UniProtKB/TrEMBL annotation:
Record-linked SUPFAM superfamilies: Lysozyme-like
The Transglycosylase SLT domain, residue ranges: 26-263
UniProt keyword annotations, A-Z: Signal
CDD domains in the cross-refs: Slt35-like
One Pfam family per UniProt: SLT_2
Domain of life, source organism: Bacteria
One of the GO BP terms on file: peptidoglycan catabolic process
Protein name: Membrane-bound lytic murein transglycosylase B-like protein
Cleavable signal peptide: 1-22
């Protein structure tokens, strides 16, 4: 395994060291220095940041802050209206039929996961449906690039002109600076975790597609979540969250470690699901999809 990792790191360096276009942004230097100070190999870090997919774009953080500013200035009544019971798209006939077909096709592995982790097939499939539409929507932007840009953009003055506000009141500007720094620090932790996870599993981190926030795989784990809960489901010596068995088992492991039991009350189930994605609309949507899948399965099988 050690020899495999050494070859992997050397191959990344050989492929990327000659590509310096993406490394021209001076803002990368403090970020790279911080990673090296935290124990990452200098040549490895330089190689990753030299990849052509790694480009500085301040609008990546600006988009996040625009959303948060909009919500900050939103009238209370609008905030309440936005908090719906659950997302009805996922219990519509098309997506629900697709989820049921997936459950039938992979029922054997889902039952095995339920026996080992105590997470019902309907719950695992519901998570997969909402996260990535059963693995078909994985995100297009490199997770590393998104996280690196957020980590390197801790000062809102880097992108203030892109926020759409000519000026902000002092208290709002103070809030923006604090919130941006907090988001940048969060992104750094996730970036470091992504490098650690990638190194341990012989993956080039610059090539991992992900969400705008850096979640990846068909289970959409954040890197810190992957480090803590990802499982080698097919026992091939490598965790690949783009592979069905690894992802499904990892999702069940996450739920189990956060207290899931199929016998829990609805309220307690919602609390566990909330840990997967901190939104009660999300939690209620997962619960509703799982309930509908169980209803369909009780009528049409499998049993």
């Amino acid at each position: 395994m050690l020899r495999k990792l050494i070859i992997f790191h050397i191959s990344i360096f050989m492929m990327c060291s000659s590509l310096a276009l993406a490394d021209s942004h001076e803002g990368w230097s403090p970020l790279k220095d911080r990673l090296v100070k935290d124990g990452f190999n200098l040549e490895y870090v330089e190689a990753i940041f030299s990849a052509t997919s790694v480009e500085y774009n301040s609008d990546i953080m600006a988009r996040k802050m625009r959303v948060l500013l909009k919500r900050r200035f939103e009238p209370p009544a609008k905030k309440v209206a936005r908090e719906k019971e659950f997302d009805e798209r996922y219990v519509g006939p098309v997506l629900l039929a697709g989820a049921y077909a997936y459950l039938r096709e992979h029922y054997d592995i889902l039952v095995q996961i339920d026996k080992e982790y105590g997470v019902a097939p309907s719950v695992v499939v519901a998570l997969l449906l909402v996260e990535t539409k059963l693995g078909f929507t994985l995100g297009k932007a490199p997770a590393f690039n998104n996280l690196a840009n957020m980590a390197a953009s801790s000062d809102p003055l880097l992108f203030f002109d892109d926020l759409g506000y000519e000026k902000l009141e002092d208290n709002d500007l103070k809030w923006l600076k604090k919130r941006t720094k907090k988001k940048a620090d969060w992104a750094y932790r996730e970036l470091a975790a992504l490098l650690t996870f990638s190194s341990a599993n012989s993956i080039n981190p610059a090539e991992i597609p992900g969400s705008p926030y850096g979640a990846f795989g068909i289970c959409q784990f954040m890197p810190t979540t992957a480090l803590s809960y990802a499982v080698d489901g097919d026992k091939d010596g490598q965790i690949d969250l783009f592979k069905r068995e690894d992802a499904l088992v990892s999702m069940a492991n996450f739920m189990k470690k956060h207290g899931w039991k199929n016998s829990l009350s609805k309220a307690k189930k919602l609390k566990v699901i909330y840990r997967y994605n901190h939104s009660m609309v999300y939690a209620r949507t997962i619960y509703e999809v799982a309930k509908q899948l169980d209803r369909i399965r009780s009528t049409f099988g499998p049993t």
